[in-house]
Amino acid sequence: MNKLPCEVIQDLIPLYVDGVCSAKSKLYIEEHLKSCETCRNYLAEMKGEIPMLSNVMKTDNLYENEMRFFKGLRKKINKERGILIGIILVMLVSIFAALIFPRITTYPGKVREIGRYVKIDNGKHVIVDDRMQTYFIMIPQSDNLFKGLTIGDRITIITDGASLDAQSSDSINVIRCEKNRDGDINDVPESVIEEFIELGYLDAKEYGY
Question: What domains can you pick out in the chain, each with its CATH number?
């Protein structure tokens, strides 16, 4: 029996699958399939036993499109995440700066000073200048100006125009006060604490002196 080429066999296979080919053609096809894996695979495709090549290609293209979509989506998410992280960092820095540095708005013609807060036993409020280790009694504009402060707290005050460096008296008028951060007696210069104790402004036993 003459062997037919694969192209002819594959043209006949659809008729073979549908059972409408001649007996002679059926014989040629079956004889050819015994030794040809390519045509056997083609027959299996026609019968639906394995996916058609075109369907496989469509599936591959679909997979590639999906991967391309998810890669683009991931890039977009990463970009938006970077922007969000940047915004959060800016907010955190702003909050940190607000806690660490003075938050008082500048008043025209007024002076801003920074120091340590101490309330002495006679009920008066004192600001201690860390730099010069001197202190001034603060005369508040309102009674609750120093509410919530404890000894050693770092504060920023707005005076009526006099600075601590140029102050000739032992008191200073204060129109605004805010706490920058918490503190304790260890943050106040020791020489000032000793002077307060000597003058009777602080109880030595209370503060371990």
Answer: 6-47 (no CATH), 111-199 (2.40.50.140)
Residue 172 has phi, psi (to 5 degrees) of: -150, 135
CA distance 114 to 92: 24
- Tens-digit pLDDT profile for residues 103-146: 444 555 567 778 899 988 878 888 888 777 778 888 888 778 88
Q: Please state the rounded mean pLDDT for residues 82-91.
A: 87
What angle (nearest 5°) sits at the alpha carbon of residue 78, between those of residues 73 and 84? 125
Q: Where are the beta strands (DSSP E) in 120-183?
A: 125-129, 134-140, 154-159, 171-181
- From 196, 70, 98, 209, select the one nearest 156 (Cα to Cα): 98
